[in-house]
């Protein structure tokens, strides 16, 4: 594969992406963000669900003015919206809040995939339009569907580079970073909601379940479409 579509043409071949991925696999998460910031500059965006503060803390530590995108689905928990504002103030974030283009309606009651498509996938695609690379907080331990997530790859659907700097991190790694850097937590964690989504489709996780088991529980749905 030759990477020639979109702005991210500095990495011309899959082989180059593979080489960078192998190098970053054994490097700190900050190194992945530093590489991307150096390569793509202001064409780099962080997409955050504000589930926690770890990715944001690392990203702004590397590039204080990096753009942080938050998708306001209009169905977020009040705690998540509070956490967004708390971190905005703490870090003086260059925050872009992106809303759906549709009216607030209860599509989630009849069409989960359609609801995610108009409230998450389309807004993200709009936020990333014209950019060269995006950063996510996706981790391999989140769920079996993410077990092989690379640090850096080519996002075919969006014709851009995608980075998952935290992909190798375990829950213990996350907890240790939060403790060591005295980071605030999304209050939903205290209620057992470990993977934060919209309130109609998210419930606390039972002991022994993976962190994303509370998302769309009982529906057979496992991803919203942002990472497919």
Question: Describe it for me?
Answer:
The chain has 228 residues and is of the alpha/beta class. It has one domain (14-191): HUPs (Rossmann fold), CATH 3.40.50.620. It is 32% helix and 11% strand. The chain is built from 6 helices and 6 strands, in the order ααβαβαβαβββα. The protein has a 6-stranded mixed β-sheet. Strand 1, helix 3 (54-62) and strand 2 form a beta-alpha-beta unit. The longest helix is centred in the middle third of the chain and has 17 residues, at 112-128.
Tags for this model:
11% strand, Rossmann fold, 6 strands, single chain, disordered N terminus, 6-stranded mixed β-sheet, 228 residues, alpha/beta
């Amino acid at each position: 594969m030759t990477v020639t579509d979109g702005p991210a043409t500095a990495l011309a071949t899959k082989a180059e992406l593979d080489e960078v991925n192998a190098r970053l696999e054994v490097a700190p998460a900050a190194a992945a963000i530093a590489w991307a910031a150096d390569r793509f500059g202001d064409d780099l965006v962080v997409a955050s669900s504000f589930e926690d503060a770890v990715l944001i803390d690392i990203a702004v530590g590397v590039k204080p003015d990096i753009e942080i995108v938050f998708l306001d689905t209009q169905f977020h928990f009040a705690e998540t919206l509070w956490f967004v504002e708390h971190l905005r103030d703490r870090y003086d974030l260059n925050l872009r809040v992106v809303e759906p283009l549709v009216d607030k309606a209860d599509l989630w009651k009849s069409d989960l995939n359609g609801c995610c498509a108009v409230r998450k996938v389309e807004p993200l695609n709009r936020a990333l339009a014209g950019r060269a690379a995006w950063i996510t907080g996706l981790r391999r331990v989140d769920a079996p569907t993410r077990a092989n997530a690379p640090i850096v790859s080519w996002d075919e659907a969006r014709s851009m580079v995608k980075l998952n700097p935290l992909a190798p991190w375990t829950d213990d790694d996350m907890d240790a970073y939060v403790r060591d850097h005295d980071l605030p937590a999304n209050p939903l964690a205290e209620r057992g909601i470990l993977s934060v989504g919209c309130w109609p489709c998210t419930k606390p996780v039972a002991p022994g379940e993976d962190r994303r088991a509370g998302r769309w529980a009982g529906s057979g749905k496992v991803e919203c479409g942002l990472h497919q």
